[in-house]
Amino acid sequence: MTEIGPWRKSSRSANNQNNNCVEVRLNGENPQVSDSKLADDRPILTVSASSYNGLLAWVKDSPAQS
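Structure for DUF397 domain-containing protein, as requested:
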């Protein structure tokens, strides 16, 4: 049986009362990404670990947006 982890969101989203943020979780070895503002109707994207790690590297290296 594949274990599905809890949804996690950025700590920078903690003060967001509208719950509008991108969330991630692990589904076995596969990261999944979703947009929380769509609640139960949200699409859940399953990506490869290498694609997810590439996204994280890009976000960390990108300049902050206001």
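The longest strand covers residues 22-27.
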